Amino acid sequence: MHQTLSSLTHEILDVLDDVTGPEIPKPISLHEPEFSELEKQYVLDCVQSGWVSSVGAYVDKFEDLLRLKTGAKHAVAVVNGTAALQVCLHLVGVAAGDEVLVPTLTFVATANAVSYQGAIPNFVDSDPLRLSIDPVKLEAYLERIGEVRAGGLYNKETGRRIAAMVVLHVFGHPADMDVLQAVADRFGIVIVEDAAESLGSTYKGHHAGTLGKIAAVSFNGNKIATSGGGGAILTMDDDLGVRAKHLTTTARISAGWEFVHDEVGYNYRMPNLNAALGCAQLERLDDFVARKRKLAEVYHLAFDKTSGLNSLREPTDSQSNYWLNAVFAPDRVSRDAVLKASNDAGYQTRPCWVPMHLLPMYQNCPRDDLSAAMTAVDRIVNLPSSPRIVGNT
Ligand SMILES: *Cc1c(COP(=O)(O)O)cnc(C)c1O
Fold it and tell me: Does 51 sit in the ligand 1 pocket, CB within 6 Å?
């Protein structure tokens, strides 16, 4: 290694001191929500209305705002992003015993949602720069293990049907959807987008969450906009949109005052109280995206002057919401040194997720070679990314 660990730790601390400035008190968290008078006003109004639970005007308004902000034809508000993902998988026909292609480089919820359907994740590798599924490697993998039969794509090695693929936009940076879609079309599988981290990001001018067949968004407290806890299903498909609403609201059919349900539905509806908070956050989404993009630019300029650390940039065909900024250290030892030095100094930096195939419940799942994801994980450090770092509006 041409650079000592101590020069790397000096570089990260210099950048963090420069970018955050002296006025923000430590510790500085990885990502924290930001609330204004608007959030207080909507939440108070919701409480005063008495409609805090599963029915209320804020849920409808939240769904309207989501459609407006993303261009999605249908938006269905639900209790969290994981539930949204599970229902997406259900709606595209993922059933018990199926396999679903999932990047190993993701948050555990992506794989868990597959498991909730009784399906088995089949882990695939990531593009070293883009961090989402590598389409070239995916195609070679499917050529090797896949066989298209009457009932769909089958895994020759396990005998199971490969029912779908979940594409994640890592840290908000859109995946190369056109190329992934071409591979999916060739093998006859549908794409479910895990857009949990990418609200406000666009790929070739189209919003994340409208790029696949159906998508899941998260409004957890650490995401770019939060409803406390919450999620949403987005789709351009009328049939799936109607089905998503029905299925997440206990599958009740209108029959006067009778409780009549026509299938096993879920009580996944977002409470009105959460939707009130979420409405205020969605009204401020453009401002959050603008400030997070500005913060990313400041990080890029600072890291351009370092010799051992490279910041992760948005793909040239995309505009990222830069949900989490990230930097590549040269290797795992230097990554850990950078993490320790920055956390000791009051900056909450974090490593990337432990790859899914290394977790105990997923280590026996089928998988491709995952070396690019492993290398990326060894090197990635996520940086404090709250919009307030570049000032409030
Ligand atoms: C946050 C997140 C989820 C899950 O969202 P919740 O609302 O926390 O259930 C799923 N996938 C990814 C990649 C996430 O970052």
Answer: no
